Amino acid sequence: MNNRQLFLSHLAQTTDFPLMIEIEKAEGVFMFGPEGKKYLDLISGIGVSNVGHRHPKVLEAIQEQLDKYLHLMVYGEYVQSPQVKLAKALCDTLPSHLDNVYLVNSGSEAVEGALKLAKRFTNRREIISCINAYHGSSHGSLSVGGNEIFKRAYRPLLPGVNHIVYGAYSHLEQITENTAAVIIETIQGEAGIKVACKEYFQALRKRCDATGTLLILDEIQAGFGRTGKFWAFEHFDIVPDILVCAKGMGGGMPIGAFIANKTVMGAFKNNPLLGHITTFGGHPVSAAASLATIQVIQEEKLLEQVEAKADLFKKLLVHPMIKGIRNKGLMMAVEFESFEVLKPIIDRAIEKGVITDWFLFCDDSMRIAPPLIISEVEIEQACGLILEAIG
Ligand code: PMP
């Protein structure tokens, strides 16, 4: 059997539309299939390869760590240089009160940890999240997700979760003194790139402060430079109580984190048993890759280029079939009439060598989230091929 046959026979599938693209190598913004077929990657493994595939500095950091040690001990027991250096580097990107980092393996795990921490710190049981939010696939993170179709089959889920509309001021009144936390994506990703305004986030922050509710910002998709700021909340002049991140954090390696104030995080210690544990969280190889990723974003001044690159996409992607473009930096959604119109365009673009896709909860829009290192020439090539695919 060839790889595609093995894929369909033995690899669990969770969609009727697997893209089924076979890749043998990836480098920078490009991926290469068998017989050298070359693709321009416009989705970065869903917002992961922000510094491009196999960035040399990331590879070097991984290699250096491979020569030292792999797994040593469950998280937080031994002093491991890649973990502590990464924690410090993360805190240096953040407002000073966010000074304590819990490293995990993925976005869903970061969300789980953040929710547990909020309950533990506030001693409250209710959580508020947003309709159409995506926070992960584990039971807890699914419970705070905001799409009923995804949740239906798994009920009963976490009790005490209520949903509000992202961006709706009047719903903020539902945040009360019983609310442990509000969890919200700073930019809603899987809803198809929805961006609330600064005034909304400031009102949300104010309501959380007034009720003693912790504000958890999910920047798993929007963080690590994707929107042109290192963290998307910087656009809105607010700060979270707990920040969750993953995806772009590892430069292609699996890692995530939830970050809070040392006092808040200390709630996990006030426990006769262990507060929250993980075997592999903050794996040293992933942590080394993550530290290198932060350095690359800073040294290559990637943040400064995001807005101009996004503007170039918007300037070039003009066509009567394109109904509009929503974006915050290089987190973009190109809107079409329907999925039926969009799907063949995506398929033709892939044939032409440009990879895009759609969103979990918004299938009439094309996802564009390229590696931040993409050049102007590559953007021009990509947009030219997308326009050809539209026809
Ligand atoms: N939150 C957001 C905003 C996400 O986009 C995702 C992944 N799409 C997650 C959480 C879950 O992350 P993971 O798949 O790493 O568990």
TrEMBL record:
Needed cofactors: pyridoxal 5'-phosphate
EC number, as in UniProt: 2.6.1.82
Keywords: Aminotransferase, Pyridoxal phosphate, Transferase
Family note: Belongs to the class-III pyridoxal-phosphate-dependent aminotransferase family.
Record keyword Transferase present: yes
InterPro entries membership: Aminotrans_3, Aminotrans_3_PPA_site, Class-III_PLP-dep_AT, PyrdxlP-dep_Trfase, PyrdxlP-dep_Trfase_major, PyrdxlP-dep_Trfase_small
Organism: Cecembia lonarensis (strain CCUG 58316 / KCTC 22772 / LW9)
A molecular function GO annotation: putrescine--2-oxoglutarate transaminase activity
SUPFAM superfamilies given in the database record: PLP-dependent transferases
Class of this enzyme: transferase
The protein's name: Putrescine aminotransferase
